[in-house]
């Protein structure tokens, strides 16, 4: 009985180590030290108040009530 419990404990530890290693590898792929879902502020998408398109905040232009994309299909500011 004790052998079975020991085996289960070893398996649980191994699974946790593999999951931790996979998470670390995925984090490195997404950027230095960044965790998935933790996007930099400039990569955050904002919605254009004129045409409704979603654009990265870094590319958007701040308008009175929100952001504008300034794209070709975007109506000019009144
Ligand atoms: Zn727009």
Walk me through the structure.
The protein is built from one helix and four strands, in the order H-E-E-E-E. Strand 3 and strand 4 form a beta hairpin. The mean pLDDT is 79. The strands form two sheets. It has a two-stranded antiparallel ribbon with strand order 1-2. A two-stranded antiparallel ribbon has the order 3-4. With 78 residues, it is α+β, with helices and mostly antiparallel strands. The protein is rod-shaped. It has one helix at residues 2-29; strands at residues 45-47, 54-56, 61-62, 67-68. The protein has two domains: 1-38, no CATH class; 42-78. 36% of the residues lie in helices and 13% in strands. The structure holds zinc ion. Residues 48, 50-51, 53, 68-69, 71, 74 line the site of zinc ion (ZN).
Biggest sheet features:
2 strands, antiparallel
The largest beta-sheet arranges its strands as: 1-2
**Ligand names:** zinc ion
Structural class by secondary-structure content: alpha+beta
Radius of gyration using CA atoms only: 23 Å
- Low-confidence segments: none
Q: Quick one: how many beta strands?
A: 4
Which geometry do the CA atoms define? rod-shaped
DSSP helix count?
A: 1
């Amino acid at each position: 009985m004790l052998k079975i419990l020991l085996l289960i404990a070893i398996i649980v530890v191994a699974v946790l180590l593999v999951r931790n290693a996979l998470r670390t590898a995925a984090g490195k792929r997404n950027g230095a030290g960044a965790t998935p879902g933790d996007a930099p502020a400039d990569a955050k998408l904002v919605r254009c108040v004129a045409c409704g398109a979603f654009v990265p905040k870094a590319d958007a232009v701040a308008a009175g009530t929100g952001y504008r994309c300034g794209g070709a299909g975007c109506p000019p500011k009144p």
